[in-house]
Each structure stands twice: as structure tokens, then as C-alpha cells.
TrEMBL record:
GO terms for biological process: isopentenyl diphosphate biosynthetic process, methylerythritol 4-phosphate pathway; terpenoid biosynthetic process. The record marks 34, 133 as: Transition state stabilizer. A divalent metal cation binds at residues 8, 10, 42. Binds 1 divalent metal cation per subunit. It comes from the Bacteria. Residues 1-154 form the 2-C-methyl-D-erythritol 2,4-cyclodiphosphate synthase domain. NCBIfam families: ispF (TIGR00151). Its cofactor is a divalent metal cation. It catalyses: 4-CDP-2-C-methyl-D-erythritol 2-phosphate = 2-C-methyl-D-erythritol 2,4-cyclic diphosphate + CMP. This is 2-C-methyl-D-erythritol 2,4-cyclodiphosphate synthase. Keywords: Isoprene biosynthesis, Lyase, Metal-binding. Pathway: Isoprenoid biosynthesis; isopentenyl diphosphate biosynthesis via DXP pathway; isopentenyl diphosphate from 1-deoxy-D-xylulose 5-phosphate: step 4/6. Involved in the biosynthesis of isopentenyl diphosphate (IPP) and dimethylallyl diphosphate (DMAPP), two major building blocks of isoprenoid compounds. Catalyzes the conversion of 4-diphosphocytidyl-2-C-methyl-D-erythritol 2-phosphate (CDP-ME2P) to 2-C-methyl-D-erythritol 2,4-cyclodiphosphate (ME-CPP) with a corresponding release of cytidine 5-monophosphate (CMP).
Length: 160
């Protein structure tokens, strides 16, 4: 069994859609970024890549490469999953915690889990997604951004 950890944070910006876990969330601002800014999928992708001993998504999808401008993070996660499968890795489970003062995310978490599970080829019961706040503290507490931490466990065919 291998384990990886991932983290991502993006600032909130006017005129952007808020997308988390491949799910559109109604809000007056969205996450700024070269891609769609989905911190949940970015942190999961980095956790998976870390568990496999690979480069992070910043190296695989550089923000100075126009090919990735506006890319869907579902596409990023799909590509990461494909690369892992090609190298003999299988995702066992992922777990994530999103830190956001607003909006309230709990109504959207079941869809996020379903989206992630579908891409990773695992049951939704193997995808944990939680949300919390930072109690008004710091950058996140001042409603300037959203962050996410993730952990993933993987198995490789040759591992015993």
C-alpha cells in the first residue's frame, strides 16, 4: 500500500464559476486559476501522484502552457488516473477536507463523491469529502479563498 498527500488553494474571484469535485456550486465568486480552479480535484490528483512517486500537477499541467488554459479539473484527474493505471497502480481510497467559510458545501458533497469515484473507478464509499471552516482566521477565514487537503492510498501490482 502506498500513501500520498495533496494540498491546493486558490483565491476567490468575481466572474468565475465555483467548481468543486466537478460540481457547480452556486456562489457569487469562483476560484481563480489557469484551469477551472477546482481545489478538491487538484489536491486529490496531487495525492495520487505523490503516492505513485510522480511529479505534481504543476509539472504535468504547467500554468504557463496555453493548452491547459481553462482545462476542466475532471480532465486533469482523468489523465492522472489513466497514467496510474498504465503503470499498474490501483486507487484504494481517497479522503479530502475542504476549508471554506462559504458557501455551505454539505448539500453538494454526495455529487462530488460520485464524480470522483466515477473517474477513479472506485465505489463512492471509498471517497471521503468533508468541509469545514477556518473559524474566520487567516486568508481562508476572511473569505478570500478556498483550500483542500487530500490523502490517497494506492496499490501497485508488484507491491506486496
Amino acid at each position: 500500500m502506498r500513501v500520498g498527500i495533496g494540498y491546493d488553494v486558490h483565491p476567490l474571484a468575481e466572474g468565475r464559476k465555483l467548481i468543486l469535485g466537478g460540481t457547480d456550486i452556486p456562489h457569487d465568486r469562483g476560484l481563480a486559476g489557469h484551469s477551472d480552479g477546482d481545489v478538491l480535484l487538484h489536491s486529490i490528483a496531487d495525492a495520487l501522484l505523490g503516492g505513485a512517486g510522480k511529479d505534481d500537477i504543476g509539472n504535468l499541467f504547467p500554468d504557463n502552457d496555453p493548452r491547459y488554459e481553462g482545462i476542466s479539473s475532471m480532465s486533469i484527474l482523468t489523465r492522472v488516473q489513466r497514467e496510474l493505471l498504465e503503470e499498474g497502480f490501483r486507487v484504494h481510497n481517497v479522503d479530502a477536507v475542504i476549508v471554506a467559510e462559504e458557501p455551505r458545501l454539505s448539500p453538494y458533497i454526495p455529487q462530488m463523491r460520485k464524480n470522483i469515484a466515477q473517474v477513479l473507478g472506485i465505489k463512492p464509499e471509498r471517497v471521503g469529502v468533508k468541509s469545514t471552516t477556518s473559524e474566520g482566521l487567516g486568508f481562508l477565514g476572511k473569505k478570500r479563498g478556498i483550500a483542500c487537503w487530500s490523502v490517497a492510498s494506492l496499490k501497485k501490482k508488484e507491491d506486496r
